[in-house]
Amino acid sequence: MSNSIDTYSDAQLMKALLTHDFAEVGREFIDDVITNIKPGGFYKATNLDKVSLPAVTTIQTHAFEEASIPTLDLLWSAITSIGGKAFYLGGDCLPETLELTNVTAVGNSAFA
To answer: Hey, which of 24-33, 72-81, 83-92 has the most confident mean pLDDT?
Structure first.
């Protein structure tokens, strides 16, 4: 993984992604390698002010469900698939306008 803020061990990053508590890796999670956000990747994520994942093309189910992340920086035009409930109750992290020009699949209740 290539975190451009600081360098963290794989163990620190995996713990953050598994527990959804990002306190150990700082208030910003920035990675330019991740292309696929796994199911529930940032589900109920805590201790994050910003997530920047410019290489992401696939957002799977429940990826940002109930996440309260003030700044979510994705290259929206590069995203091809958004899973069900990906942003369920996490609308506060979405920009006002989404440029979803390449999305070919959107799951049920993706933006509910």
So the answer is: 72-81
Cα(10)–Cα(1) distance, rounded to whole angstroms?
A: 8
CA distance 70 to 52: 11
Burial class (CB in 10 A: 0-12, 13-18, 19+), 67: buried
Q: 50 forms bridges with which residues in the sheet? A: 28, 71
Greatest Cα-to-Cα distance within the chain, rounded to the nearest angstrom: 36
pLDDT tens-digit readout, 86-96: 999 866 778 88
CA distance 63 to 90: 10
